[in-house]
Amino acid sequence: MNDVVEKFLASTRPMLIGGEWVQADSGELIEVIDPATEAVLATVSAAGQNEVDAAVTAASEAFRHGAWTEITPYERSKMLWRMAELLEENIQELALLNTLENGKPLSASIAGDVPAAAKTFRHYAGLCTKIEGKTPQVSSSPSDFHAYTRREPLGVVGQIVPWNGPIVAASWKLAPALAAGCTTVFKPAEETPLTALFMGQLLQEAGIPAGVVNIIPGYGHIAGAAMCTHDQIRKIAFTGSTEVGQKIVRNSAGNLKKISLELGGKSPVIICADADLDRAIPAAANAIFFNAGQLCIAGSRLYIEAAVYDQVLEGLAQIADNMRVGPGMNADTQMGPLVSHKQLDRVLSMIEHGHGQGARVVTGGNRIEQSGYFIRPTVLADVDHDMTVVREEIFGPVVCAMKFDDIDEVMERANDTDYGLAASIWTQNLARGHRLAAQVQAGLVWINCHAVADPAIAFGGYKQSGWGRENGWEGMEQYMELKSVVASLQ
């Protein structure tokens, strides 16, 4: 641990409201637990209704009367670009905090999360100056009227992110909202607030004016609920479970605020007999075991063509058996712990339930008996499509392997789910790959790859996997209103 992080963790972390670092009026604290040791890592101040109100007021003032609305798109662009530079300059500190609070291997935090966040801020720095309207031709009396459209920022937005990728999730929310010209009230997950608070310091250093970004750690049923019902928040952007997403829809109905939701998934991985198995098998393992399976796009349903079923299952089990599971701070760790005891209990309960319904545990399925929330990478076979482990999101390193003979049949099974976030198809017949991609009911489909994300690629799901999209132009569009202006030329 370096000196900057030690100092950061040494005292109770305040929240950022109106450009000031403040403690909650109630004095309530959140203990941040290191999932690798089960020890208290730090304490942060927990926002209640008063802090939500103060943050919304600060964001509203910054939007309506502050300097933010007078800042040119070019100046916004420079601030976002500077934020990207600061993320890279502080990569060791951010990666360390990410691993300590989330459990992910430090190597993945350094090589993946922080660079991905910087890339996202740079992408939207470029889009700040690309916001434009249209001049439609009026079909009735075109010489009498001039019409054009404007894209304008929504105003104050509320953003709620999960614990499974706190740095990346923060960048996916903050960068497009700031690029569009909005101000924000941002609530990190109570399990992982530290990286967001550190990023708040960097946003200030990047020149973001007071009140434009307010960061308020807090519990979902208190701070999150208060954000959803607040009349001055014009939009809620949420990433998390489908169950909580449904609550947000109900709680946000009061002022009909806009909502974007990136929710759960039960993503199929389809391996055809003609796939390059030297690539497909490790990729299928990474699709489910990366970040201990705590990804909405985790490849948790594995469909394998009968001719190669045994070979794929054997290869997957071998990778799982040899995977080095341990604290993220260890240099040789390939898979870290689950984020909390609650999550560990849920995953173990799902495995037990699947076994009780007849699933065969090929490997794994048990907790590693040591301090920390560690579980063995788990492969289940002989599963039926109606089993709970196949139908419901587990959010852990558990894959359900199923055999198929007919490609049309497997496509029906792949789409027979409440979710529709992602899928991957493995075949060396690219014509077949593109045909199958067109049939999958999912917002993201990868051919001969999995979990490839980029700020330019729209991210979001069908069905109960959410509303709207993040990343790309579509991600920034979620933070703007479209206004039509019609002027008489008479």
What does this structure look like?
The protein has 490 residues and is an alpha/beta fold. The protein folds into 2 domains: 282 residues, Aldehyde Dehydrogenase, Chain A, domain 1 (3-Layer(aba) Sandwich), CATH 3.40.605; 187 residues, Aldehyde Dehydrogenase, Chain A, domain 2 (3-Layer(aba) Sandwich), CATH 3.40.309. The protein contains 16 helices and 21 strands. It has a 7-stranded mixed sheet, sandwiched between helices. The chain has a 6-stranded mixed sheet with strand order 8-7-6-9-10-20, sandwiched between helices. The radius of gyration is 23 Å and the shape is globular.
Short account of what is shown:
By secondary structure, this protein is of the alpha/beta class. The chain has helices at residues 3-10, 49-64, 73-89, 91-102, 106-127, 166-180, 194-205, 220-229, 242-251, 277-289, 309-322, 341-356, 388-391, 407-415, 430-439, 472-477, and strands spanning 15-17, 20-22, 29-33, 40-45, 145-153, 156-160, 183-187, 213-215, 235-239, 258-262, 268-271, 301-305, 360-363, 378-381, 398-404, 419-420, 422-426, 444-447, 462-463, 466-467, 480-488.
